[in-house]
Structure formats: structure tokens, C-alpha cells
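Progress note, sequence design subtask.
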């Protein structure tokens, strides 16, 4: 009896393994990858932290396109610009879906979050609405004047409160995005909506982390698992839903009240409400769309400004050069873009990227490709000396050698905030470099510079956005004349 109990599962597993196309097995035509276990495939090899680093190791062994089996599903990871352009950009019509995400997409956002929508009519409508306010000409006309003034406040904040350096870029990017969506500013880094958004982002990241909820997307029967067996995951999803809507809904309400008093602004929300008789979107759909823009536009942009400070403090010889040539791809903020899913089979170099596969653009490997760049780990903006146009121009080139970076993703799902982000970054970075000398901070006790941790594993947070952990740099205004300009009355009172 005992031996029956022991051997039956072993025999079942072996049978499953011998039969073709059973869970966990890699079919012959798939891109290569590490050997698999029956049922689980490569699930046990997927780390909880810094997935992109692990993918980089696999890419060194299996090549620029490799696959992992996750239960009966397939994940295909793209690690070179060429592979990314081929699969995600040129084949965009069929590689722009999203993999299932039961907890976030269904339980938390009830199918209304644009980031998780299939590229069908509902998603197209949202992209169209985003485009109405985020297209280049509108950003230049409506947003750039706001960015001009907000970036003045950024350098003034850094000048007057250098001890809060880590918080100022977030206030800046949040204020730009809040102005775009609601016409409401974020005057200080402790403004309530900004504090709540920061909390929400942490909650979203931790609930999307591996192991935080049962892997229902891989093993759908786990949906019926009593929630107390996995850290009350359903209740936590409900709480998260309440927290997100509790932030977005009152902001929408505030704008509706403003409009009822006859005051219309050039904001995203006003533009949606103007058209809503025809669009017939529910309040919840509108709240979540607005939230999507806040989530997409805040941490991404602020992280890049902070990494600029790291880069400048550690590369003093580049500081002057960087004032003209600053570039963003040293630590791309979105580390794996956002996963895509395939709607049909796609053949590439004799391999199949199968229908239903999750496709991941591993930005880390793409940006550190030794075949494209000598010493890819070095911060060296002069690599891009000839590439003087904005990222959107190169992202549309469909040529991986012209594409200077993949930080905004590519293809149909490319970041719709690209024009706004480029201008928000450019004005902030140019002003910061114009205003400050940036050096490592010196330890008063030892007289030695305090190290800045730029190690991709220990110096940055886990999660979708590659946020740097707190670090210290010495930021000093470059001259008294510059200080006078920073605090000039017309710039200080520009919001009055
Ligand atoms: C430096 C700043 C930014 C970076 C690096 C960035 C990067 C990205 C990336 C990699 C994606 C996923 C693309 C894909 O699925 O292939 C994305 C999506 C998105 N981003 Fe951004 N982003 C930035 C700023 C912004 C801003 C300012 C906004 C809006 C105010 C925004 C709104 C969005 C939205 C709504 C999506 C979802 C697109 C979709 O699923 O169709 N982003 N972004």
C-alpha cells in the first residue's frame, strides 16, 4: 500500500513527461532554454527578485531569444534590439496582447484598466483618448508651458531643501501628470494625493510580486483555493481596489464640481467628460483611466532624474559634456517593458514564438548588448552623439540599429506618454545641470566620499520600475548669479 502511494505519483509524472505537449514540456520548435520539470517547466528557476538579471544570465547561455516553460504556458524573452523589433514591432498586430493577470486585472480593476486590456476596441478607444492630449503638438502647446514652470520649482526645491533631494523629482513629475489629467497641481512632496499615489504604487508592485498571490494565471484551479490558505489574498485584492478608487474617484469628483461651476480646463478628464455623452463610459472606467495616466507618468520620469544625479556625481568628467548630450538609457526606468502576449504563431530564425506565449522585452540585456556596444556597463553618453532627435523618432524607425533605446517599449503598445516624458525629462535635466554641481557627498568623520550604490541588484528597488534606492550626493548651486535667477520673483510666483 505504502509503495503504491509513493509510486503512483511518480508514474503519473513520468507518463506526463513522456507524452508530448504536456504541461512543463518544451516543444521542439520553441526557442531554446533551460531544461524543464514535468508539470512545472521552469517555474522553479524564476526568481522572486531581479528577474531581468536572471534573464541576462539565460541569454548568455541560450542566445538572444530563449523560452521558459511555466506550467503549460510559454514565456519568450527577447534580449536584443533585433529580436525585439522583429517580434514586438514588425509583428505588432499580433504581439500586443497582455498575458492574463487575474488578481490585478480582474479582482482589483474589474477589467477596466487599460494597461491590461486586449488590443481590441475598448483599448483602442482609450489609446485614442490618451492621444488627444498626449500627441506631440498638444503637449507642445498645453503641457510644455506647465513643464517650464514646474521645472523651475524643481531646481528651487533642490536649492532650498537639498536634504529632501530624493523627493523633489517625484513631486515634479506628479505635478506635471496631475496637471495633464485633472488640472490640479502637486505643490509639495507631502501633498496628500501624491503621498497616496506613492503608497498605491508600492501596494500594486507588491501584489504583483511572485508569491504574493496564488499563481492563478498558470494554474487557474487555484482560484478556488480558500483565501486563508494564501494570506487572505482575495481580501487584500479588495482592499487594494478600495485604496485605488479611494484615491482616483475624489479627484475626478473635484473636477466634475469645477465643471458644474462653469470652469472648463484643457485637461485629459475635461476632454473625456466633454465627449462622454457619446462615449458612455462609466464613472469607474473614467476613474481607472485617469489613474492609469498617474501610475504611468510619475515614478518613471522621476527615477530618470535621480539616476542622472547618480551618473553625474560618479562621472565628473562627463558633467559638462552631459549638459548638451544627456541621455537616459544607462538605467532604463522600465526594466522589462510590460509583458506582451502573442495572438498567433510567429516564426523567427527557425523557431516558433507560439500563440498565447508571454513575450518579454528584457530591456536590461537589450541595453547592455556587447555586440552593439563596447563596454556596455559604462556610462558613456557620447555613444549617442549623432542621435540628436527625440526617442519617438527612433522608436518609429523599425530598425534596431537606429533605435537608440527601448525604454518606452515599441510597437502598438509603445508608451503613449513618450512626448510628454521626453519634454519633462529634458527640461528638468537641462535645468538641473545648468544650476548645480553634483558630487559624491563627503563623510565628515572620515573625509572619504560616501559610496553611491549603482549595482543593479543592490542599488535599485524591485518591481516594474527600476527605482534607485535612496543615495546621497552633494548638490551645490554653481554660482550666486544662478541662485539669483533660480529665486527670481517672476519664476517663484509663476503659479500665482
Ligand atoms: C520616462 C518616462 C516613461 C517611461 C520610461 C515609460 C515607459 C513605458 C513602458 C515601457 C510602457 C509599456 C509599453 C509596452 O507595453 O510595450 C509604458 C506604457 C504606458 N505608459 Fe509610459 N513611460 C513613461 C512616461 C509616461 C507618461 C508621462 C505617461 C502619461 C502621462 C505614461 C503613460 C503610459 C500608459 C497609459 C501606458 C500603457 C500603454 C498600453 O498598455 O497601451 N507613461 N510606458
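Output:
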Amino acid at each position: 500500500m505504502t509503495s503504491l502511494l509513493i509510486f503512483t505519483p511518480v508514474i503519473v509524472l513520468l507518463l506526463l513527461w513522456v507524452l508530448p505537449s504536456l504541461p512543463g514540456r518544451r516543444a521542439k520548435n520553441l526557442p531554446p532554454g533551460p531544461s524543464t520539470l514535468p508539470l512545472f517547466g521552469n517555474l522553479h528557476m524564476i526568481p522572486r527578485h531581479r528577474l531581468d538579471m536572471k534573464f541576462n544570465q539565460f541569454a548568455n547561455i541560450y542566445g538572444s531569444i530563449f523560452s521558459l516553460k511555466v506550467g503549460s504556458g510559454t514565456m519568450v524573452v527577447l534580449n536584443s534590439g533585433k529580436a525585439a523589433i522583429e517580434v514586438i514591432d514588425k509583428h505588432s498586430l499580433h504581439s500586443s496582447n497582455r498575458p492574463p493577470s487575474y488578481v490585478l486585472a480582474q479582482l482589483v480593476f474589474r477589467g477596466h484598466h487599460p494597461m491590461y486590456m486586449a488590443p481590441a476596441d475598448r483599448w483602442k478607444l482609450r489609446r485614442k483618448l490618451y492621444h488627444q492630449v498626449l500627441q506631440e503638438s498638444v503637449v507642445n502647446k498645453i503641457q510644455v508651458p506647465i513643464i517650464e514652470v514646474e521645472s523651475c520649482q524643481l531646481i528651487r526645491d533642490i536649492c532650498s531643501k537639498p536634504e529632501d533631494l530624493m523627493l523633489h523629482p517625484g513631486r515634479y513629475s506628479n505635478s506635471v501628470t496631475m496637471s495633464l489629467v485633472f488640472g490640479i497641481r502637486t505643490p509639495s512632496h507631502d501633498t496628500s494625493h501624491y503621498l497616496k499615489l506613492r503608497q498605491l504604487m508600492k501596494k500594486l508592485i507588491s501584489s504583483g510580486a511572485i508569491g504574493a498571490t496564488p499563481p492563478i494565471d498558470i494554474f487557474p484551479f487555484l482560484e478556488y483555493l480558500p483565501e486563508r490558505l494564501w494570506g487572505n489574498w482575495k481580501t487584500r485584492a479588495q482592499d487594494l481596489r478600495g485604496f485605488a478608487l479611494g484615491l482616483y474617484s475624489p479627484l475626478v469628483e473635484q473636477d466634475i464640481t469645477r465643471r458644474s461651476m462653469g470652469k472648463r480646463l484643457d485637461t485629459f478628464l475635461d476632454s473625456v467628460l466633454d465627449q462622454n455623452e457619446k462615449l458612455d463610459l462609466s464613472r469607474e472606467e473614467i476613474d481607472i483611466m485617469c489613474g492609469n495616466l498617474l501610475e504611468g507618468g510619475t515614478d518613471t520620469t522621476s527615477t530618470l532624474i535621480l539616476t542622472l544625479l547618480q551618473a553625474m556625481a560618479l562621472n565628473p568628467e562627463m558633467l559638462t559634456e552631459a549638459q548638451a548630450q544627456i541621455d537616459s538609457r544607462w538605467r532604463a526606468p522600465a526594466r522589462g517593458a510590460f509583458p506582451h502576449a502573442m495572438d498567433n504563431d510567429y516564426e523567427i530564425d527557425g523557431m516558433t514564438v507560439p500563440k498565447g506565449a508571454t513575450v518579454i522585452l528584457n530591456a536590461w540585456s537589450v541595453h547592455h548588448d556587447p555586440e552593439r556596444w563596447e563596454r556596455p556597463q559604462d556610462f558613456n553618453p557620447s555613444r549617442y552623439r549623432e542621435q540628436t532627435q527625440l526617442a519617438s523618432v527612433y522608436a518609429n524607425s523599425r530598425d534596431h540599429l537606429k533605435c537608440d533605446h527601448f525604454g518606452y517599449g515599441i510597437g502598438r503598445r509603445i508608451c503613449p506618454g513618450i512626448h510628454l516624458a521626453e519634454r519633462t525629462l529634458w527640461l528638468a535635466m537641462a535645468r538641473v545641470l545648468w544650476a548645480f554641481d553634483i558630487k559624491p557627498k563627503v563623510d565628515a568623520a572620515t573625509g572619504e566620499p560616501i559610496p553611491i550604490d549603482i549595482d543593479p541588484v543592490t542599488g535599485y528597488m524591485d518591481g516594474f520600475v527600476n527605482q534607485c534606492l535612496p543615495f546621497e550626493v552633494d548638490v551645490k548651486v554653481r554660482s550666486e548669479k544662478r541662485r539669483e535667477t533660480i529665486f527670481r520673483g517672476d519664476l517663484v510666483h509663476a503659479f500665482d
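The longest helix spans residues 233-260. Work on this subtask will continue into the next period as scheduled.
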